[in-house]
Amino acid sequence: MKAVILAGGSGTRLYPVTQSINKHLLPIYNKPMIYYPLSLVMLLKIKDVLFVVNPEDKPSFEKLFKDGSHLGMNVKYVLQQKPNGLAEGLILAEDFIKNDNICYMLGDNIFFGHDIVKIMEEAKKDVEKNGGAYVFGYSVKDPERFGVVEFDENGNVLSIEEKPKKPKSNYAVVGMYFYDKEAINIAKNIKPSDRGELEITSVNEEYLKKGKLKVKLLGRGFAWFDAGTHDSFLEAGEFVATIEKRTGLMVGCIEEIAYRNGWIDKEQLLELAKPLKKTEYGKYLIEIAQS
């Protein structure tokens, strides 16, 4: 399985800050926002990652991640010329994905929970074994802002709808999707929505029509932030700060994950920490290497 992380878009909900910087590079507490979805991909042991980025932002992402080899990974970039919808990222990733299955992440979504990696591994294995699509739902107060999934009394999916004016449930589909290789062809054949975008909900709808869509609900033990608004951005930062201060462990530390995965050794970790040794982040990496 390969991973695609969507990090383009215009970030209009975070204006005026995003007039000068891509929102995915803004700090959620002590790390760029984009570190958090990337860290989950790494925890799934996925080494091949494609970032979908705006043309003007590519140099910044390359400065941050290079080709990924310093983390023992293979990182690529593809340009999204205009924000034409979340599903366009799948089309742009075609040459990278080839015949692989896909872990598709939105760069502004942040997840936390004791079993989040276990649940993602289950989704990954399910798609690898059975094909289809596997997505996640989360109860929200404002479902009209999201793609909304409707269930029957037995938990079967009845419908999935993008930003409905009258939501049929409070369950939003979050920005973490697992697809088989057919997702690219499906994305190519969906029609733009009324707002002129290729919606990821339309892709999920097609899988539902084929009887190949699974939706797992994330319950009370999980936190999910769509950090694309000022309030949720602030809440996500405060949440990460609280967790890290209470536990002494970092959330979304990509160098630590690469080390614990065995992708880099102790010397390589210390080399990455060296230019950061005066910062709390660098000190943390040194502690990890010496523990």
Describe this structure in words.
- With 291 residues, the chain is α/β, with parallel strands linked by helices.
- 35% of the residues lie in helices and 24% in strands.
- The chain has a seven-stranded mixed β-sheet.
- Catalyzes the formation of dTDP-glucose, from dTTP and glucose 1-phosphate, as well as its pyrophosphorolysis.
- Its EC number is 2.7.7.24.
- Keywords: Magnesium, Metal-binding, Nucleotidyltransferase, Transferase.
- GO terms for molecular function: glucose-1-phosphate thymidylyltransferase activity; metal ion binding.
Summarize the structure.
This protein is of the alpha/beta class and 291 residues long.
CATH topology of the largest domain, what is it called?
Spore Coat Polysaccharide Biosynthesis Protein SpsA, Chain A
* Percentage of residues in strands: 15-25%
| Fraction of residues in helix | 25-40%
| Total strands | 13
| Low-pLDDT runs | none
| Major sheet summary line | 7 strands, mixed
Secondary-structure content class: alpha/beta
Instruction: Give the class-level CATH name of the largest domain.
Output: Alpha Beta
How many separate domains make up the residues? 2
**CATH arch. level architecture of the largest domain:** Alpha-Beta Complex
Instruction: Calculate Rg over CA atoms.
Output: 19 Å
Question: How confident overall, as mean pLDDT?
Answer: 95
